[in-house]
TrEMBL record:
Gene3D superfamilies according to UniProt: 3.30.428.70
SUPFAM superfamilies reported in the protein's UniProt record: HIT-like
Listed name of the protein: ATP adenylyltransferase (5',5'''-P-1,P-4-tetraphosphate phosphorylase II)
Start and end residues of each GDPGP1-like N-terminal domain: 110-232
Residue runs in coiled coils: none
GO cellular component, one term: cytoplasm
Keywords: Nucleotidyltransferase, Transferase
GO molecular function, one term: guanyl-nucleotide exchange factor activity
Domain of life: Bacteria
A GO biological-process term: glucose metabolic process
Length: 345
């Protein structure tokens, strides 16, 4: 992998590009970039401490500006989603925000992530029919003009065109949305070529980014956008699903969900293709040289607990997100295992 002008050349280079991009977003005068920068900064305590003064200043400027607009002619140019999120934040007060907190509940990871509760759910919790739907150019997708400002990087990745967007409401470190061949308008449905891209690029990125991975939500398995994307992250510690104590990793502890640990790209594709033929939804986690494939029930077909807004690749991999402080403290290992057993098939 060439390292010239490559944000993937090292963890430090990716972090620098990530943080520099957030600073640029704060210079924009609309709500979307501010919300994205705030949510990403609040995910990491160190980054939050660094950017909080600038974020607070921008919040006051935007509040004053939008208040004047409403008093003047009653119109605001931003879309409903960003305005709704900003009004929630304004109602609570910027000073009530705090960085994301983590704890362990047995083998599971639990995070208190209050800002993620503000995000629009789009299609991630809607009941769906089937596991594939044609791309809709009139629906939400990553080629919308207003999404251009959320691109962190775009270029050649291992011989394929790709764009890396910020995740507006992150729940893992260095969280981005990797969109291969975005102008081809692929729906959220894996093909052999796209699977091959994900497998190979995870391995290549792993050469310079320890802890890198790609999460994938099939249509009907928590995907919020029907435009082919994978969720890139770089973690300091493995996800719970990679714990060697679990049976799919050679240990003795059964995993609460059906999980296939696969070390070969072709074998992984054969299993994915079998799920496609059977019409079964799934979540997929790519790590360098390994994939975890989790067939599951489609979203909306089972009851979700109050403490969990969605069940997608991160949840199926053993990480839980809640925006309720009391539930964050009270959540137990058996609660989490129960959700995985409910979701799996």
């Amino acid at each position: 992998m060439s390292t010239a002008d490559n944000i993937f050349a090292s963890p430090d280079r990716l972090r620098h590009a990530f943080e520099k991009g957030l600073g640029r977003l704060l210079e924009r005068d609309t709500l979307g970039p501010f919300i994205l920068a705030t949510a990403n900064a609040s995910f990491e305590p160190e980054l939050w401490n660094s950017l909080r003064p600038a974020l607070e200043e921008r919040f006051e400027e935007l509040s004053t500006d939008y208040r004047a607009r409403l008093l003047g002619n009653g119109t605001i140019p931003d879309g409903d989603e960003d305005l709704t999120v900003f009004l929630k934040l304004a109602f609570l007060g910027f000073n009530t925000l705090e960085p994301t907190r983590f704890r362990q509940a047995g083998p599971w990871e639990v995070q208190f992530n209050p800002l993620r509760a503000f995000r629009p759910q789009r299609m991630s919790t809607q009941s769906v029919d089937g596991i594939r739907k044609p791309f809709n150019p009139d629906g939400f997708h990553f080629n919308k003009p207003f999404m251009e400002k959320e691109i962190l990087w775009e270029g050649d990745l291992g011989g394929s065109e790709a764009a890396l967007y910020y995740n507006k409401y992150p729940f893992v470190d260095r969280h981005g949305l990797l969109v291969p061949e975005r102008h081809q308008q692929h729906p959220q449905f894996l093909t052999p070529a796209l699977h091959d891209f994900a497998w190979k690029q995870t391995a290549r990125l792993g050469e310079t980014l320890p802890g890198v991975g790609l999460g994938y939500n099939a249509y009907g398995a928590g995907a919020s956008v029907n435009h082919l994307h994978l969720q890139l992250f770089v973690r300091d510690t493995p996800l719970p699903i990679a714990d060697p104590h679990f049976s799919h990793n050679g240990g003795s502890e059964p995993y609460p969900a059906h999980c296939m640990a696969l070390d070969d790209a072709e074998e992984t594709w054969q299993q994915v293709e079998a799920l496609h033929r059977a019409g079964i939804a799934y979540n997929l986690l790519y790590l360098p040289g390994r994939a975890y494939l989790l067939p599951r029930r489609t979203q909306g077909s089972f009851a979700m607990p109050d403490w969990c807004g969605t069940c997608a690749w991160y949840e199926m991999a053993g990480g839980m997100v809640t925006s309720n402080r009391e539930l964050f403290s009270a959540l137990t290992s058996s609660d989490i295992a129960g959700l995985l057993r409910e979701a799996t098939i």
